């Protein structure tokens, strides 16, 4: 039995993305333990820190199956001295663009969903129509601002039901800006964690 066959027997395909996420988290933790956040910003430069935040947030927005923990960079860059409000804004805009691609894919991919799931989605949409519009916007905003799970859990189902793009993306983006700003302030005011 070869080494790759042994590894395949130990780690399933479903576990592999989770293990990569854990490995990235451990590697980043070791990295920032060895190099203080201020030194990271000095090495990268201030403008590059914002650009890296934007790119990682964008990738985090388009990655459905393997989430990218971009918020660790937001926290580290804030601890290194970057503006937490600007970090939150830049990450929120990056997520907006990434989530937009997920929305478009879901919007046009409804035809490939099994009819059983389509019926469930249609019932959920009908239920949402029976409630005030502001309630859905508040729920979307709250999810983006306070739930640290991928936005695709909300964006893709709403894309499937052809929920209006701007009615989804405005509260989601504002929520993401709040979430990332809070993450930046956590990084700024808890430097002993870094």
Hey, roughly how much beta strand do the residues contain?
under 5%
- Please count the beta strands (DSSP E, at least 2 residues each): 0
Rg for CA atoms: 19 Å
The helix/strand order is HHHHHHHHHH
Low-confidence runs of at least 5 consecutive residues: none
Distance between the termini: 43 Å
Mean pLDDT: 85
Number of helices: 10
Number of domains: 2
- Helix coverage percent: over 70%
Structural class, from helix and strand content?
Answer: mainly alpha
Shape: globular
Q: Describe the sheet with the most strands.
A: none
Description:
The protein has 194 residues and is mainly α. The protein folds into two domains: 1-34; 36-193, no CATH class. The chain is built from ten helices and no strands. Helix 4 (46-62) packs antiparallel against helix 5 (70-79), helix 4 packs parallel to helix 6 (84-108) and helix 8 runs parallel beside helix 10. The chain is globular and about 55 Å long. The termini are far apart.
Care to give the gist of this entry?
The chain is an all-alpha fold and 194 residues long.
Highlighted features:
0% strand, mainly alpha, single chain, 78% helix, 10 helices, globular, 194 residues
Reconstruct the topology from this structure.
Elements (H helix, E strand, L loop, with lengths): L2 H8 L4 H20 L2 H8 L1 H17 L7 H10 L4 H25 L6 H15 L3 H14 L5 H9 L4 H25 L5
Helix pairs in contact: 3-5, 4-5, 4-6, 5-6, 5-10, 6-9, 6-10, 8-10
